[in-house]
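Hey, I was hoping to borrow your eyes for a little while. I've been staring at a protein lately and its backbone has me curious. You're getting the sequence in one-letter code plus the fold written as tokens. Would you mind checking whether the tokens look sensible for this chain? Here's the protein in full, and shout if anything looks odd to you:
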Amino acid sequence: MPGSPNEHEKLRLDDERMAELHAALCGALADGKRLRIMWFLGEGEKRVADIADHLGISTQNTSQHLRVMRDRGAVVARRKGNAVYYRVANPKFIQGARLIREGLIEEWTWLGKLG
């Protein structure tokens, strides 16, 4: 219906609640292991055991990181039998993480700090 606000219009970029949601998501990714999980999940859905193997940490530690990411909306989980699978909640989240990574590479290369 023309003139009726949709969900995107309700949550404006300058809205305090949107800022809180954004900060919570960024907080979930403010850890090196969680960023590595995000980049790994950028390849597609993965089992917790596969994520743990990729990071070289225990499945218990991996599950703790994933719980933080899930609670803040970065990833979603589904259970199939005894396995739990995770994926990035929204492809734009991984795009944002990749853009920041590319920017860091450019800046550190320009500063001569990246070999």
